[in-house]
Each structure stands twice: as structure tokens, then as C-alpha cells.
Amino acid sequence: MLHFPPMKKSLLLLALLLTACSSSVEEETSDDLTYEDCRTAGGEVFFHEPHECHLFDDIYYDDKPTAKFVDYGPATGYYASPVGGGPYQAIVLIHGQSGLQKDIWAQARGLAKEGNVVLAVDLYKGEKTTTQEREQEMAAAVREDLDSAFDNIEAAAKWLSLQYNVEKESVRFLGESFGDEWDQRLEQLK
């Protein structure tokens, strides 16, 4: 049996175009295709930032936000940024009692997908909570030393403001509460 990979790609691309135009008579151009369409059509994928898919001399970019851990001074935080140059609104994301866990990472990526550059701070400085009792102890330690917590948050805001793709005017703060005094101090940073 003969194998014609370029023919297969052409047929898959044609099937995608026909599906996309199912009720429309308008002519579809390759500019209307997405990264996922390119992958489905068998394009060659390159895992750069952002991910690329190459098909018939065209390049399609993945619109998933860039996300990675960064050292911003007092701790390592979770950074998420939209694809593209910006400038974007900057947000310091503050975790709750459970710490810098996967749910906060997902929230940071979601905010980045909405067009924000996000740095989720780590007020527990790398320590992970394993039990509810330990969560409560760590949250109490943050409440007892608000100066260190706010130094951490201010360092994160400064780090974010130095990034090439953020609006320089202001940094927003978003996140969980550690009590009334916490909320009052956070309000002063705004």
C-alpha cells in the first residue's frame, strides 16, 4: 500500500474547512484556522512558548497562556501570562489557607487567558500543607507576621511591574483573606 502523507493532510484540511463552512456559502481562508485545527489536520507541532503548529507554510499559535514558576525575591511564585506582547493588566494573586496549590495555579492561568499577567505569591515560602491542621497553623503564622507577608506581596508587585508586557500604572491584588487586619493592609497597597 502506498502512503501519501501530504495527500492525507490535504484531505484532513479540506474536511475541516467543509465542516466549518457547513451552513455558510462564504469562502473559508486559512487565516480562519486555529492552532487546534492545525493539530487535527496533522500539522507539525513545536513546543516553543507559545506552542506552534506548522501546516502548508502557515504557522498557527496556541492561545494557552505561558505559565511557570519564577523567583521574585522572598519566594517562588506561579507566573501566568497571555500569549502576545501586551501591555496587560497585572495581578498579584494571593492564595488562601491551603497555600499555593493547583487550584491557585489554575486560577492564575484562567486570569491570564482573560488578558492579565498574574503572579501568584507563595506566603508559605515553599512549604506545602498536607493536613487541615497544618493549613490552620500556617495561616495563623501569616496573620502573626503580617509585615513579612506584605513585604512578600510588595516584592511580587514590584517584580510584576518590571515585566515588559504589563501596564505600568497599577497592579491589582486579588485573593483570599487572612482576616480583617489583612484586608485593611491589602486595601492600603491599592
In short:
By secondary structure, the protein is α/β, with parallel strands linked by helices. It has helices at 5-20, 35-40, 102-113, 132-144, 146-161, 180-189, and strands at 44-46, 52-55, 58-61, 66-71, 76-81, 88-94, 116-120, 166-175.
Could you give the order of strands across the largest sheet? 4-5-7-6-8
Structural class: alpha/beta
Shape: elongated
Q: What percentage of amino acids are in beta strands? A: 15-25%
- The CATH class assignment of the largest domain is Alpha Beta
Which superfamily, in CATH terms, is the homologous superfamily of the largest domain? Alpha/Beta hydrolase fold, catalytic domain
At the fold tier of CATH, the topology name of the largest domain is: Rossmann fold
* SSE series: HHEEEEEEHEHHEH
Second-tier CATH architecture of the largest domain: 3-Layer(aba) Sandwich
Low-confidence stretches: 22-30
| Biggest β-sheet description | 5 strands, mixed
Whole-number count of domains: 2
Q: What's the mean pLDDT score?
A: 79
The helicity comes to 25-40%
The N- and C-terminal alpha carbons lie at a distance of: 68 Å
Number of helices: 6
Work out the radius of gyration.
Answer: 22 Å
Number of strands: 8
Describe this structure in words.
By secondary structure, this protein is of the alpha/beta class. It has 2 domains: 5-61, no CATH class; 66-189, Alpha/Beta hydrolase fold, catalytic domain (Rossmann fold). Helices cover 38% and strands 24% of the residues. The chain has a 5-stranded mixed sheet. A 3-stranded antiparallel sheet has the order 1-2-3. Helix 3 (102-113) links the parallel strand 6 and strand 7. The longest helix is centred in the first third of the chain and has 16 residues, at 5-20. The chain is elongated and about 60 Å long. 27% of the residues are buried. The model is unreliable at 22-30 (pLDDT under 50).
